[in-house]
Design brief:
One of its GO terms (biological process) is sterol biosynthetic process. Belongs to the diphosphomevalonate decarboxylase family. Performs the first committed step in the biosynthesis of isoprene-containing compounds such as sterols and terpenoids. This protein is an alpha+beta fold. The strands form five sheets. It has a five-stranded mixed β-sheet. Strand 3 and strand 4 form a beta hairpin. The relative contact order is 0.16. The structure holds ligand DP6. The site of ligand DP6 has 14 residues, from helix 5.
């Protein structure tokens, strides 16, 4: 007999970034983070896990190619789920597997990403979240998604946030064994469903510095990272949580862009410096300035208010002129060159696409022809 389970898990995009570990083995972060989970129709992993007495070893295939399961991250996830396995009885198929049987049974895992790996968007987040979720169902583990997130975290930190739809917070936790470092859902996928996420594939080149190596170097050398983790992120987490709950797009966009920019500033502050936005920087700068300019110009209805205000309080003009603009789009860049753009609604997304296509006409560059458009939701 073979017992089989298939699961599908979307990837997530951090709007307050995770960057830096306080424990590399358990994957414990130096700060909380918040992400938005994409619609699985656009960027997701589908994983089938199977157990059978006829399997003689654990094996895994990724996009049809066999890969090794011997790495510590895979082994940690397998061990943790096996420890939580419960009895399974399938009368129709005549299968009965006891808790003890799960220790001896071998597994076969087949995993697919629905997005070309070559586009540089393949993410370990969806992969580990899907593996852990599918294994938990296969072995009848009774843990809830937050408990499972603490296991997925040991595969890849950002994976813990993909166990939920909507907006998700990874609480860094304090315990040394990592038991309180897990993900919780802030709001579900219906709460803010007019948001549209566009991923502009700026380059298909694989990143030169992996997140794991990059954050290790940043923790060891960047003073800005320490300041960010202690002083900046706790305030941003609070404000971002409020912006999401109130569907306040202006604050959401301001925080998202600022946090992406600070994450890349930490990378530059690292020794040796990491330039995730370097290889195609002219395009990234063009996308950022396109969004920044557009967000400012959309603020014209507020100019009157800004002028009045500035008469009374000239000293605060600059900061208030920023917060008074009607932002329509937020941008965020992860440890790679592709831009993730979050539009306020469908109208803003359509206008943004027109602007992007104007800045980067399809004929001028093959790489920039690909855009993933997806509603935020699971
Ligand atoms: C920039 O989760 O890929 O995307 O825990 O070492 O596997 P490991 O790193 P990973 O790092 C993601 C970093 C980021 C920001 C984020 O997703 O929060």
């Amino acid at each position: 007999w073979v017992r089989m389970v298939t699961a599908q898990t979307p990837t997530n995009i951090a709007v307050i970034k995770y960057w830096g570990k306080r424990d590399e083995t358990l994957i414990l972060p130096v700060n909380d983070s918040i992400s938005v989970t994409l619609d699985p129709a656009h960027l997701c992993t589908t994983t089938t896990v199977a157990a059978s007495p006829s399997f003689d070893q654990d094996r895994m295939w990724l996009n049809g190619k066999e890969i090794s399961l011997s790495g510590g991250r895979y082994q940690n996830c397998l061990r943790e789920i096996r420890a939580r396995a419960c009895e399974v009885e399938d009368k129709e198929k005549g299968i009965k597997i006891s808790k003890k049987d799960w220790e001896k049974l071998h597994l076969h895992v087949a995993s697919y990403n629905n997005f070309p790996t070559a586009a540089g968007l393949a993410s370990s987040a969806a992969g580990f979240a899907c593996l852990v979720f599918a294994l938990a169902k296969l072995m009848n583990a009774k843990e809830d998604n937050s408990d499972l997130s603490a296991i997925a975290r040991q595969g890849s930190g950002s994976a813990c946030r993909s166990l939920f739809g909507g907006f998700v917070k990874w609480i860094m936790g304090k315990a040394e064994d990592g038991s309180d470092s897990l993900a919780v859902q802030l709001v579900d996928e219906k709460h803010w469903d007019e948001l549209v996420i566009i991923i502009a594939v700026v380059s298909s080149r694989q990143k030169e510095t992996s997140s794991t190596t990059g954050m290790r170097d940043s923790v060891e050398t960047s003073l800005l990272l320490q300041h960010r983790a202690k002083e900046v992120v706790p305030k941003r987490i609070k404000h971002m949580g409020e912006a999401i709950k109130n569907r306040d797009f202006g604050s959401f966009a301001q925080l998202t862009c600022a946090d992406s920019n600070q994450f890349h500033a930490v990378c530059l502050d690292t020794s040796p410096p990491i330039f995730y936005m370097n290889d195609t920087s002219h395009r990234q700068v063009k996308i950022i300035s396109c969004v920044e300019k557009w967000n400012c110009s959309e603020g014209t209805p507020q100019v009157g208010l800004f002028v009045c205000f500035s008469l009374f309080c000239l000293g605060q003009c600059a900061s208030h002129s920023r917060s008074l603009t009607l932002k329509q789009v937020a941008y965020t860049f992860d440890a790679g060159p592709n831009a993730v753009l979050i539009a306020h609604n469908r109208k803003a997304a359509t206008q943004l696409m027109q602007k992007l296509l104007f800045c980067f006409p399809p004929s001028s560059d093959a790489d920039l022809n690909s855009y993933v458009i997806g509603d935020k939701s699971i």
